[in-house]
Amino acid sequence: MSSPILNLDEVQLRGLDASDGPSPDVPPGYDVRWGEIASRIGARKLGYNLTVVAPGKRNCPFHSHRSEEEMFFVLEGRGELRMGEDRYPLRQGDLVACPPGGPETAHQIINTGDTELRYLAVSTMAEVEVCEYPDSGKFGAFAGGEARFRHIGRATDARDYWEGE
Fold it and tell me: Residue 16 falls within a domain, yes or no?
């Protein structure tokens, strides 16, 4: 078994570094860097990662979870939490709760400072999850395990249950 202890200075970041320039997969305004922690310390029901965001950027689209709950702990930097229709300033030492729900719990962290924003992200790990993206009108349906499923679409493309049967 691996050690149940990991120091943050041992977490290796992956993803797109802002210095890599634009990516065809990641739109401007985003900085997608994180370091996976949970599996390295033996976690089973919670996911943990270190997230790093460059000044003026955000890590992910504004979204809500129907199953998973998230918690963020700001380690360094300043930012802004966008949650539902509200915005809140963030600074080192702040804790943020993002419970499951609909548009009222949609959230996004934006780095509004002039240095990197670093935060610890902790979440429950639901086997099946639905995320909604209010800004774009999309949803994502995800299922893990051996038969992985991932679909991102729009509710306007709904079909009748019996269509094509």
Answer: no
Alpha-carbon span 120 to 48, nearest angstrom = 7
Task: Record the pTM.
Answer: 0.89
33 exposure class (CB count in 10 Å sphere: 0-12, 13-18, 19+): buried
Identify the weakest region by mean pLDDT among 23-32, 60-69, 86-95, 118-127. Answer: 23-32
Q: Express each pLDDT in 31-77 by its tens digit.
A: 989 999 999 999 999 999 999 999 999 999 999 999 999 999 999 99
Nearest to 130 by CA among 100, 99, 156: 100
CA count, 13 A, side-chain hemisphere, 80: 14
> CATH number, domain at 61?
2.60.120.10
What beta strand segments (E) does the chain contain? 14-15, 33-36, 46-53, 64-65, 70-76, 78-83, 86-91, 95-98, 107-110, 117-124, 128-133, 138-143, 149-154
Lookup result for tokens 């993206």? 133
SS3 8: helix
Any domain includes 106: yes
